[in-house]
Every structure is written in C-alpha cells, then in structure tokens.
Amino acid sequence: MPAFMEPFRIKAVEPIPFPDEQQRRDTLIAAGYNLFRVPASQITIDLLTDSGTSAMSAAQWSALMTGDESYAGARSFEQFEAVMQELTGYPEIIPAHQGRAAERILLGSVLGPGDVSLANTHFDTTRASVESIGATAVDLPVTADPDTPFGGDIDLAALKEFLDAPHGTNVRCVVMTVTNNATGGQPVSLTNLTAVRRLCDEHGIRFLLDASRFAENAYLLTQRDPECQALTPRQAAQTIFSLADGCWASLKKDGVANIGGVIALHDAEIARRCRDRLIETEGFPTYGGLAGRDLAALAQGLTEVTDPQYLRYREQTARWFGDQLEDAGFPVVRPTGCHAVYIDAARLLPHLCPQRLPATALANQLYLAGAVRVSELGTLVFGIPGSNGEPDRPAPRELVRLALPRRVYTKSHLEYVTDVAARIAESPDEVPGYRITEQASTLRHFTAVLEPITSGR
Ligand SMILES: *Cc1c(COP(=O)(O)O)cnc(C)c1O
Predict the structure, then answer these.
(1) Which residue range or ranges hold the Aromatic amino acid beta-eliminating lyase/threonine aldolase domain (predicted)?
(2) Is 200 in contact with 353 (CB distance < 8 Å)?
C-alpha cells in the first residue's frame, strides 16, 4: 500500500504514563483484572474506545472560546443547527448530551409497548432503550462473510420476510447503524440502504439511521462502491441521510469532540414530541444538555470530519495497523474499517476454551506486557452467564478490539503496540485463562472482578 502519514501537525501535547512491569502487575491486581477499573494514569496507550476520546483541532479549540452560553436560542446552537441541516438535509435539529440520550428520546417518541424495531444491529444502548419501552429489538445482520466489502448490511430477505409475516404489523421502525459496530465497524452499502427505503415505503414504516459513524461509512462507500466513486465523502454522507426519515447520533465519534449527541428529522410532529421529552431530562431544546461551547466545537468538528484527507488517513491507519499486527503474529479480522482493528483471540489462544475468557486473557496480557488498554468483545461482554454454577454460554466470537481514537496517536505509538503484540505472540501458550469471581446481573463487563487460572485444568 502507498505510504501515508498523519494529515495534521501537533500543536498541544500531553505526556503519557509509562508504568513499569511491577506497577502494571500491581495495578491489574488492584483492578480485579478488569481493564475498566484501571485508572488512566496507569495506561501508556489507551485503545479502549474511539468514543469521546478525539483530539480537537485548533479551529475547534478557538470555537470553544466563541461559544454562546445563552440559555435559549444561543448563536452556537444556530451554527450547530445550520451545519447539521446542510449535512443531513433534515430541517429539525435537536441536540442531546450524548448518543444514548438522543436515541432514548427519539425511540420513546416513535415506539410503544409491544412494538418492534428491526435493525442491521441495534447498538447495545439502543437495544436497552427499545427494551425499556417494552418494545422488542430484532437484529437481522447479513451473515458474516469475511470477503464482503459491506459486512454492515441488513439481511434483506430476512427483513422482507419479517415485514410480510403477520407480526410484521408490529414493526414501527427499521434502524440502520452506519457503520455497524457489531460486525467490526463494517459499512452499509448504498444498495442496501436503498432497498430498506423501498421496503419501508411499501409497509409504511419509518426508516431511521444510527449515524454515529456516518463519515466513516460515507468514506468507505466512496472506496468500495463503484456507484459512489465520483462522490466526495460529504456528498456520500448526504446521500445516506437522504434515504432515511431521520437519525440520531452519538457525536462523541464522528462529531470529533468529547461530548454530544443529536436527533435530526424531517417530521415536525415527531420532533415536537422529542422536544417535549427532551426538556424533562436534557434541558431546553437549543442546548440539549450541552454547553454552548460544546455546540460550537461540534459545528466545527462536523465540518472537518468529512475532509477526504482525514478520512483516507483514518482508513489507511486501520489497514496499516492491521497489517503490522498480523506481521507480529496476531490474527486480524478482515477487512479492517476505520475506527478499530479487531483480533481473533480464540485463534491466537487455542489452549483457552471460551469459559476461560480468551479475549479477556489477551486484553489483560496487552496491559501486563506494555500498559496498552483495549476492550474485550468476547464471552465476558456477550456470553450468557450460567445459572446455579452452570458454565457461561459462550459468545459467538472471542474478539479483542483495538479502537483508534481520532487524531490522538501517531504511527509510532501504534508501532509500540505492535511491539507489545509481537512479544505476546512469541509464546501465546503462556497466556493464562481467567475466571469471574464477582459479577453484576447486567452489563457485567464494566465492573466484574476476575482472577487468572494459573493451574492447568
Ligand atoms: C456510542 C454509540 C451509541 C451511544 O452513544 P453514547 O454517546 O455513548 O451515549 C449509540 N450507537 C452507536 C452506533 C454508538 O457507537
């Protein structure tokens, strides 16, 4: 592949911690072997998430200073509203403090008890919102084919079958998450979105986007879909938005800022209902739980994020990092997208059965070996806890995600991670399995306490 580099230079820097081997061991023990419980002061390279971890540009920092903190009708809201309207084509723009607030408010305005929401995949907080309403969230992802360029698509045959069946009358919305996290940040194709639009029209159902990574999906369309080659990433994004009735997004991702969310809609009546609900929990509808300066920084971030140079760098970084990790001996999930690289821990650690949490084991080893923090997406997160001492039902895959915060780490930081990975890959059979000693009944991965299994079994 052609050489690439960061399309920016660095204006403000932040020192990073280098805990030594003893400190890393002590820290992990004190954290109950759970990386969510490790303080950031003990992390050298933090690839836990790309959410809210972006580095802002000089233009965004200067926008903060001009933020208008008026309670109602602030200038910063007008800027944010204008950028969102131009980007999405939706007239109704409602800010919220982050993605889950936006989705809770919007879904609460279109779904009721007994209703059904269909999706390529509901993000976990989206599913929680649907279920808290008493509605049902059904995921219909395409079956993962590693070679497809559009692994984020919805299974159209399954969607049509569901809508045509008698229970299809309970469906109130189809949600397309762009890009689709659950399938490794893979994009959704324009063909798929167009077909969803047609099916929604035929059945009189609302079509909504979870647009948290809209810019990355748009860029991957310009690269992988012959029909989109002539479009700029911004035009591709506008095309995506034009197919749906509205969207919500976590702006902690492609807003390239540290906080924020949004609802954007065509329908003025639904927007009115959303604003009524928003006032109860987020505040007045022109600030939605954000400071005026946050809205100003987001308006700038949403302008910068579709820069083709920036998006090319994003995609090339993930591909290059994937190649490096593969050369180091890590099994990488292909194709890479933009926001993360995923490692197949089950393939690297075949001596660990799912009940010994191979993805957790690999994540903890990356910390012990080099204070690198990543997230586990295996049986700790997606397994079904066994009752009465039964073993857990394993997750479908044992993945570890190395997320790429936007504009934060350079190539040499990622080379450091590759070196740490290479050391682990030299003797993977020495990586111990883990067992859970304490867990909550839901979302156990955030707070669980674990211990390594040192004796063989
Ligand atoms: C992050 C995310 C959300 C939730 O947003 P928060 O800002 O974390 O509340 C919803 N959907 C997708 C696809 C996301 O990535």
Answers:
(1) 46-418
(2) no
Judgement on whether residues 240 and 182 belong to the same structural domain of the protein: yes
Last residue of a domain, which of 274, 304, 334? 304
75, 143: one domain: yes
Domain span holding position 410: 21-50+307-453
Cα–Cα dist 93/77, whole Å? 10
Mutate to test the pocket of ligand 1, among 123, 127, 178, 213 (most ligand atoms within 8 A of CB): 123
Mean pLDDT per 10-residue section of the chain, whose length is 457 residues: 85 97 98 97 98 98 97 97 98 98 97 98 93 96 77 96 95 96 86 98 98 98 95 98 98 98 98 97 96 98 98 97 98 94 97 96 98 95 84 91 98 98 97 94 88 77
Task: Calculate how far, in angstroms, residue 390's C-alpha sits from the geometric centre of ligand 1.
Answer: 33
Question: For position 457, what pLDDT does the model report?
Answer: 46
Ligand 1 centre distance from Cα of residue 210 (Å): 8
pLDDT of amino acid 389? 76
Three-class secondary structure of residue 141 per DSSP = strand
pLDDT at residue number 245: 98
Question: Among residues 304, 332, 348, which one ends one of the domains?
Answer: 304
Q: What is the enclosing helix (H) or strand (E) of 437? A: strand 433-438
One domain for residues 298 and 428: no
| 101 and 39 co-located in one domain | no
H or E element in which residue 107 lies: helix 99-110
Does the residue 385 lie in any domain?
yes
The whole-number pLDDT of residue 145 equals 65
CB atoms within 10 A of CB 71: 10
